[in-house]
Design brief:
The chain has about 200 residues and is mainly alpha-helical. Helix content is about 55%, strand content about 0%.
Amino acid sequence: MQENELMSLYAKMDRPVPGQSLTNDPKNPQPFERKPEFTSIHSASEYLFGLIIDEDNYVPLMQAVAGGEPLSELAQVLLFKGFQEGKWNPDLMLLLIEPVIYMFLALAEKIDVDPVIYTDEDIDEIEDEETSGTKFEEKALEKIKGIETTTTPPPGVLTNKIKQQMDSLPEIPKESLLASPKGTEEEEEKNSLLAPPEK
């Protein structure tokens, strides 16, 4: 590809201009630019556990765990979404990785499922990934690797409130764990370009 073609390709790409975030209206900041809602691990952990066991989330999340979805990826999705919503800052997000994975481990033990904590490829990506301009902290990485050697959470990771909520959770039948989440297959078939036209 010639230099002129390459320059025109770069010019057409739809991406923010460097420094564009600095021109945002300071009176109307994004949720993650405001003061975070949670500043302690315990309150954020209790919020996250409540979110995980919410009736709309609990069964689909346990189906994902039973289906072999790595717990590190589930934790990453939950924590990054919370950061985008302004629930916590990046530092607290890193500190919450271990408690969230232990929550998933405890729930997996409750439903008698042997979970996948992480895949080797995930760890390789994390080691190379940059978060907010700095390398992912090696201590957090070692914690994720160390979780696989023990299923007993360290003292204080699961609070008494979380343990009480866990005891009151309903049983999930094994057959529903192996089923796909409601409506996903029908929606995929309905939205497929190869599906027959609706009358």
